[in-house]
Amino acid sequence: MGLGMASRGMHAQTAADRGVGCKAIIAGRAKTIHFMRHGVTEMNTFLKTCSYDSPGFRDPLFYDTRLTEEGITGAKQAAAVTRALDPQPDVLVVSPLTRAIHTAHHAFDHFGGPIVIQPLARERVWLSSDCGRTPPELRVEFPCGRWGDFSHLDQIWWYTGGSADPKTIILEPVVDFKERVEEFRAWLMTRPESTVAVVAHWGLLAALTTVHFDNSEVKTFEMDL
Known about the structure:
29% of the residues lie in helices and 16% in strands. Strands 1-6-2-5-3-4 form a six-stranded mixed sheet. Helix 2 packs across helix 3. The radius of gyration is 17 Å and the shape is globular.
């Protein structure tokens, strides 16, 4: 199995980036995956001035970090890109982290097909921003039926190292993270749809594709089945 890295790429930031290139030809059946990274968040903004590996770094405790105004604008601009996707997705898969759901809300405002909130698509836990919220909390934040009722999620669906305290912040081991990435890849391959859109995170997308994604950026790949 593999991802066709040279297929197509579209960027949400400028009109000049919206061109469509040649589609890679892959032997056998292939699934088209439109991957998108969430918009700019409070934590993204904080890390621009205080990097994770800087001396004396302290987590600002932006639990389940939100989009900034810049992030909302970027996600809304991305709607022009997602409307132009060809082929259009048959299903939209979204990480349960708030920044991903908010991004999907703006970037796929036109999408009327099925939506799957998939915890396998969450970010690797590095900081408070990667810790999620429980299903009851998500139902309060997203009462619209478009996102479902989150009842399929565990009470704590992100990595806490086994702790029952949802505020626990512990680095998700790389072995665990890689196993989850492969589980997500396998899950995508078993989906019946031929074209899938995924709204997720930098670390998850980099692990899946080996490609860097900017905030609100959309890239399309062919997944060899």
